[in-house]
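Deliverable D2.4 — example input (C-alpha cells):
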C-alpha cells in the first residue's frame, strides 16, 4: 500500500491535462480538450535628451485573451452545454431563428415574458445561438492528482469573440475552436493537502453505494 505520508507526496507536485476538471458558469462540460491564455500589457519607453537608452517605462492597459478547443459530439458544446446560462436579450426580429438552431430534444426554452414595459415589442429573453451572444461567465479549473494534491485557477468575465470549426474526410473527430477575452485571471493556487483516509476507502470498497434508479 502506498505511503501517502512519504516525502514524495509533499514535494514536486504536478498535474497533467487528465487531472484537470473545468467548469463553465458552474457547469461541468465534458467536451473541453484544451484551453490557453495570454496576459499582455502596454509598456512604453521614456526617453530624454542626452541618452539613447530609456530612462523608464510607462505602463498602460492590460489585455487578457485566450482560446478554447472543444470536441464536438452531436451538438454545439458551449451554447447548448451552458443551458439557461446562455440566455440573453434578443431582438424580436431575430428570435424567430432561435428554435431552429437548437437540437430537437433540447426543450429548454426561456419564458416568453417581455421583461417590463420598457422592453415591450423590442427584445425578448432567448437562448444564444451564436457563442458570441453568451453573457460573460467564469471558467474554473480544478486539478487533483493521485497523491491528493489539489490546485485551482479561475478566469473571470469570459466573453467569446470568434468560433470556428472544420470537417474533412481524413478527420476521425470534429473539434471547435474559440477565442475569448476576459476581465481577470486568478492564477494557480495550491489547496491544503489532505491525505486519503485508508479506513474510509476500505469501508467504501466493502459497501459500494447503490446507484439511485432513474425514473423513465
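Example output (designed residues):
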Amino acid at each position: 500500500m502506498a505511503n501517502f505520508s512519504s516525502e514524495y507526496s509533499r514535494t514536486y507536485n504536478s498535474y497533467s491535462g487528465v487531472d484537470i476538471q473545468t467548469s463553465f458558469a458552474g457547469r461541468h462540460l465534458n467536451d473541453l480538450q484544451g484551453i490557453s491564455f495570454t496576459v499582455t500589457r502596454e509598456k512604453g519607453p521614456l526617453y530624454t535628451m542626452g541618452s539613447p537608452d530609456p530612462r523608464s517605462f510607462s505602463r498602460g492597459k492590460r489585455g487578457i485573451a485566450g482560446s478554447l478547443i472543444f470536441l464536438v459530439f452531436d451538438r454545439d458544446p458551449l451554447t447548448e452545454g451552458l443551458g439557461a446560462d446562455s440566455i440573453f436579450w434578443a431582438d424580436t426580429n431575430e428570435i424567430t431563428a432561435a428554435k431552429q438552431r437548437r437540437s430537437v430534444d433540447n426543450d429548454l426554452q426561456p419564458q416568453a415574458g417581455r421583461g417590463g414595459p420598457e422592453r415591450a415589442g423590442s427584445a425578448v429573453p432567448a437562448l444564444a445561438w451564436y457563442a458570441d451572444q453568451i453573457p460573460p461567465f467564469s471558467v474554473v479549473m480544478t486539478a487533483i492528482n493521485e497523491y491528493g494534491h489539489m490546485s485551482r485557477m479561475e478566469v473571470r468575465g469570459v466573453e467569446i469573440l470568434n468560433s470556428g470549426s472544420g470537417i474533412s474526410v481524413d478527420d476521425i473527430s470534429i473539434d471547435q475552436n474559440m477565442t475569448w477575452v476576459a476581465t481577470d485571471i486568478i492564477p494557480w493556487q495550491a489547496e491544503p493537502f489532505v491525505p486519503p483516509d485508508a479506513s474510509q476507502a476500505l469501508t467504501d470498497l466493502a459497501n459500494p453505494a447503490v446507484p439511485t434508479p432513474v425514473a423513465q
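Residues 19-43+55-85+134-196 form a domain with the Pnp Oxidase; Chain A fold (CATH 2.30.110.20).
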